[in-house]
Amino acid sequence: MIVSWEWLGQYVSLEMPLEDLTTRLTMSGLNLEGVESRGDDTAIDLEVTSNRPDCLGHVGVAREISVLYDLPLDSPDPQPATAGNSVTEATSVEIHSPELCPRYTARVLRGVRVGPSPDWLVRRLATVGIATINNIVDITNYVLLETGQPLHAFDFDKLTGGRIVVRESTGGEQFEAINHTTYTLAPGMCVIADAEKPVALAGVMGGAETEISEATTTVLVETAEFAPLSVRNTARSLSLFSDSSFRFERGIDPHGLDIASRRCCELILELAGGELLDDLIWAGEPPPEEPTSVSIRFAQVPRVLGVDVPSADICSILEQLGLTLVGNADTDGATFTVPGWRRDLTREIDLIEEVARIWGYDRIPEDNRVPLTLSRPTHRDLVTNTLRDLFCASGFNEAMTLSFITAELFSIFRPDPDREPLSVEHSSRRHENLLRQSLVPSLLQSRRENERHGTFGVDLFEIANVYLEARPGAEGSEPTRVTAVTGRSFGELKGVCEMVVSRLAPHSRLTARPIELPGFVEGRGARLFLDDSPCGCLGELTRDATDPLDLRDAVTIVELDLATIESAVETTRRFQELPRFPAIERDLNFLLDEHITWEDLEGVVRDNAGPLLDSVSFGGQYRGEQIPADKKSYVVTIGYRSDQRTLTNEEIEDAQAQVVAACQADLGISLR
Fold this sequence. Notes:
Helix content is 30%, strand content 24%. It is an alpha+beta fold.
C-alpha cells in the first residue's frame, strides 16, 4: 500500500520527522517497504497484513498515526447536495445472488462534464502510482485510495434497460473489460449486469461497454460488498487482478458503503458539475446493527505482556482506535464494541495485542519474565493418545479430514438413516455443504485420493467430531467418533478392535451382534457393544456403496463412540500374578442354526464352563456341502487353568461335558 505524505496531512497533522513516523508505523505493524520522493511529495510504501484491510486507505493509515502520536483525526464527512427527483424513478437494483453480493448501493448524477482532473488530484494519484484517465474515473480511484472502499462509475445511458442486476454468469458469456480484453466467463462468477448482458465483473473490473467517456453525461456510482471468496476465485480464474479485488478479497466495512458513495458524489459535483438525484438505492441486507462486543480484563494485560499498562491508558488506546466503551470501566475490566472496519478484533487477546502495539513493543523490557502455566492432559487426551498409538501400531495411518462433505458422499454410509444432516448456507460451501454424521465418507474419500496418486491398500483412521441434528425433546450434539477404514477382512478388523479394548479396558468385553444396515454386505455387519453399552458398528461395505468412489478393493469399516470407550477405561493400573501352571485348550465343533450368533454361543460357554475356565475364543466357522443349508459350524476354543495345580484330563472332560450339555439344552445345538 503506497500512501502520499501530503495526502496523509489532510487528515492528521504531520509535524514529526518522516523517519520517526516510518519507524513508529513499522513497530505498530505497518512494516516500511520503502520511501521515494515524487516531485514535491513523498511516497511511503507500507506492508499491510491481510487482517488489516482498514489500512488499505489513507484515512485508515492516518487513523493509526493519530493514535500513535495522540493527535486528532480529521476524516471526511461528505454531505453532497441533491436535486429534487428520486433516484428510484431513474433506475433499480436487483440482487439475484445474495450469497455473492449481500449489499449493493447506487446513486445517479445527471449533467456531469467529463474532462481532465485538476492538478492536485493528478499529483496525488501520480504519487501513489495511479495514472490519470478523466475526472470521473480519477475520483473513483481517489475515493478508493482514501477510504479503502472500491467504487465503480457506469455510463448510465449505456445500461440497457437503465437498471442493475447482480447475478451469476451463465456458461460461455463473453465480457470485454476496461483493459479491452475479452474474457469467457465460467458459470457461477458474480457479475453486474444490465437487462441483457454483464457490464462488470463483481469486485474485479468494470466493462468497456459502459466505461466513462467524454460523451458521458449521466453517471451511476456503485458501492457494494461482494463475497471475498467469490472475488478471489473470479480474479484467479481469469488471471485478472485489480486494486478493487485486492480489497474485496480481504473484506470491507459494510458501514463504509454509504460514506464512500457520498464522498465520490461530493467530489463529482465539485469537479464535474451536474446534479445528484435524491436518495440512495440500497439493495440487499442493511449494515449490521449490533456491533461485536469484546471484553478485556485489565489483569490479563500484564500477564500476557509482562508489563503493567494503566487501565486508563488501555481504555484510551482502544477508544482512539475507534472502539466504543460500553458503560463505564470498572476496576477489573471493560467492554468495548468494535467498529465495522476492524473485523479482526473478536477476542480479548486481540485487544491486548492492540494495546501492546500502540503502547510500544520497545517499552516492554526484554528481561521481564512472562508467567507460564503448564496444562496437564485430560483423561480424554490420554485415551485419544493411546488410541492413536494402538491404531498406528496395528498398521493404520491417521487422517485429518474436513467436517463438510457433499450430498453424494453423505449417501454412501448413513449409520442412522432416519436422521437428516445439518447443512450450511454460505458461498464458500456451495457443494460440500453438509456436516458429516459419520467419519466413514471422509475417510473413504481420502482412501480414493491415495489410490488416485498410486498409493494402494492404505489403512486409515481418524478421531474427530460428527454433527447430529436436534430432535424433538433433545438438543443436537457433536459426539467424537473413532473410525477406521481398511482393506482387511471383517474378522481382522474386529480383532484390532478387541486388541484396543483389551489394552484400554481389560476387564470389559467387546461383543458383536449382527445387524442389517444399508451399505453393509449381508451377514457382514455388526453392532458393537462394550459390556452392555452400544459403542459403534463394524462391517464390510457393499460394492454399490463404494462404486461412486471407484475404490479398487473391498473396504471394511468400524466406527466407535469415544465417550463409551472413555467411560470404560480403567485409570488405575492393576497387576496380576503370572500363572504358575499351564493352561490346557480344547476345541468344540458345534453344528447350529443360522440365527444363533457367536455372542449367544460364547455366553452359554462362559456361564457353564465352571471355575476352571481361563479363556473362550472363536476358532472359525464353516458353511458348505457337508452341512445343511440352514446350518453352520462354529469352532470354539476353550482354555482351562488352575492356580493351584496342573489339571487332569478327567477334570477337563467333565467341564467340556457340562458345556456341551448346556449348549444342547439352551441353544438346541449339537457337536459335529
